Fold Short chain dehydrogenase/reductase family oxidoreductase.
Amino acid sequence: MLPQIQFVYNDSTSHVGKLSTIFRTATMQGYTYNGPVDCTRQPDSSNLKGTTAIVTGGANGLGEAYVRALVAAGVNVCIGDLNTKRGKKLELELPGTKFVQCNTANWDDQVRLFQAASKHSPTGRISYVVANAGIHRPDEVFTYDGDNAEPRKPNLSTIDVNVNGTLYTAKLAMHYFVKQNGHTPSENQEDTCLVLIGSGAAFLDVPRAPQYDASKWAMRGIMHSVRRTAYHYGSRVNVISPWYVRTSILSEETFNSIEALGIQFATVEDAGECLIRILSDKSINGKSLFVTARKWAERGYMDLDLEDYDGIDLLQEIQEEQMRSAPPEAGLFV
């Protein structure tokens, strides 16, 4: 277990001051707000070739789209999914892929997934982790059990997969990133990135689905917690939040009903390009990109620019005080 730093906040010779000096030498910039990401540029994926990525829930739907986009960019991909049939089919079809059966709600399964990815990697390194695995089911938190019935304990499997499973993924990703890049910033650190998969439900009112909504807001919470410290280890963290995309997460009947209302969908291809845009640009850290209908964005994704408080002086002041009371350097691994 790595030791934690102890801090004395009123001591000018404390570890905080020393660490601040050390971290100014880092090759990756700490989190700063520089306005929204320009999502009109076609990404240049040439710097991704030969790296290795993990995609949880990568055997179908959006996860499969992320896998295909990564493979097209020359990335070796380890696919973690419960669907063995689909996973093995992709492994046979796509060069440089390896399938590992994995229930992301199970810690031991995810440990095996990361171990397999490290062995699958030509260099032994894991550069990118896409925490995509998630489910959507009828929400028993919302369900009314009747006037003459006692309320029944709800099934919280959505939280188990979407939140607990993602936290397992985040823990393992950062462990491997720190282990690979070391505890002290240096010119030898290689770019690593954790991408959390949110949803339009992470920004919008979505009735009747409190668990799913909570789980997708949680992706933003994880990102906000990590984005100011990950750079010390040469790492980044970002969120992709898709709009309606035709996948198996909802029934065909539901999608047809939505489309009949005149609502335009996003596409899996645009979601894949959004991922490549994030991974190929080392300046993108602490951002949420929204994969959306083309009527709203030229390339099918955009930065809604909701993760900071530009122009809202009170919230900026509160954020600054939060950083003073819990500085990013506190509790870093050394």
Remarks:
- The first strand starts at residue 52 and ends at 56.
- The chain has one domain: 52-139+154-327.
- Confidence is low (pLDDT under 50) at residues 1-26.
- The chain has nine helices and eight strands.
